[in-house]
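[User]
If only I could read backbone structure tokens as easily as an amino acid sequence. I have put the entry right below:
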Amino acid sequence: MRAAVGILSAVIVILAIDVLYWYRLERRPLPADTRIPRLKWTSTGDQFTGATAPIVGSDGTLYLAGAFAIEAFDPSSAIKWVYRLDVGDPLRAANLVQDPAGNLYFTTSRFVYSITSSGLKRWQVSCAHAALARNFEGSPFQSGAVYATCESRFVALDESEGRERCRLPNVDTQASDFASPSALMLRNEEFIFSRTQRLFAADRDGNTLWTYPSDPNSTAYLLGPGVGDMIYVRNSSSDLVALDSRGQEMWTFNGGPSVAFNENPVTAAGGTLYVAAAHGPLFALTSGGTLKWVFNLPPSTMNLGYTSPLLSSDGVIYQVLENSVIALSSNRELIWQLELPEKGHRGFPALAPDGTLYAVMDNSVVHAIQTRN
């Protein structure tokens, strides 16, 4: 009898240990990059065109820029506010930024605007064909001023009031009847402008320092800044070219026949560059422009093609496709692919502090994806 009781007790202990083991195994947290994402919600923006990257504030608010409205979503998908624009004065693409205080800045065909994070107007300044400048953090701010191109002049506007502080002398950034591209502000207090499909650099006195290409019959398109005052451009052969701050070519990358680059590369902490060709594929390059790997993407049906990939702090690469979002490791492994319930064409990714990945599409649809708990 005692033996039977002992055997039964041993069996109960073994079963309890077994249950506890599998319970803990089931509840053991998985690494962030192996968790299957889930679609939290899908919503529709107000007249959103998908031509400008969204912004996620420190409180998780998602800010979208449409053709005639700026809109704010809270993390639950509720619309917090909408700031509407004059239908005769649409917003310029690629011109929505936020300062450290949370104020938003953007440009229309005729004005530069600043509004609060609550959607209230702070100021507006007359500025035709405006484009906000960019530094190496993607910001137009410097010493309490916001820098912008207005028609053919380059100006510094006071952040708090919008009044013009100064303008760059003796520089015509572009013909007045053309839309001005964004200027680039270097760390050495020089500026890069794109005019008549060529680049030129100017100092604060308006002196031209160099032009690229040097051949006036060749062309180049400014893509954006890199690390350490590196400048990325697309040349007339559709190659990706890296220039130093003196306008000298550091390296050139050719992606192959029919491959063109419309977006600026993004740089990982280790120096690897990731750049999506307009219609695919996605390339990983060393900091010296040598190919590391290629990941094929389905051909984009839009003329502008894919937007830049987004990098998370743990090294995951997110790329928005026309009907899905993919996550890749730095070794080209497909971590996951999530089909979207509504197809778009061109989409921008944005990542919130809580791990929510937003895929904002050109058909005004916003998808919120939870990438980790």
Q: What stands out?
A: Residues 2-27 form the longest helix (26 residues).
